[in-house]
Amino acid sequence: MRNLILPLFISLSVILISCCKEKNSPTPEKKTEYTLKFISSEIMEFKEITTDNKTKDISSDKVKDYFGERIEFTTLTELQFKKDSLYIIKPNDIVEKYKIQWKNNELYLYNKSSDTWRYCGKKTTNSQFSLNTGFYSIMSKTEKRELQVLGQDYALKSYSELSNYPNSLTIWLKTHTLFEQK
Hints:
- By secondary structure, the protein is of the alpha+beta class.
- The chain has 3 helices and 10 strands; from the N terminus they run αββααββββββββ.
- The chain has helices at about 1-25, 65, 70-75; strands spanning about 35-50, 55, 80, 85-90, 95-105, 105-110, 115-125, 130-140, 145-155, 170-180.
- Strands 1-3-4-5-6-7-8-10 form an 8-stranded antiparallel β-barrel.
- A hairpin with a 4-residue loop joins β1 (about 35-50) and β2 (about 55).
- The N and C termini lie far apart (about 60 Å).
């Protein structure tokens, strides 16, 4: 009987210690790295804006007339979220990196030059994300020169956020691009 008590005591001790270790082990961390793949892109606004803020809608089939291949070349293929950063993957292995912050289901990008967080999109479901993108072409004429500024920004919600040049014509295109976790 004595020969059985010592092995039994040791076995019970090992079992109790292993059970306690399982309860005290850290809980798995929330997944902070994941990739979303391009699904579709939708034109939300396409307008011509004059210096005096008169607007005229432009037909979506005219995008190529105003922006050429620019929209096609900047179409995103995937979004990679890694901890507090967003990697935007474009064709030809072009990668843009941004520091990010989530507020509820909305994503904000950090703008270092202005030290601000700027809205860029939102989760539409648990597995889908809609990225906001504003494209613009601003043409300004004076007697001595013509100036054209082309650009895009993920944080632009409206053409009213663009600089207004004298004697200018602005072409504004706002898109939402949908991504999904695969």
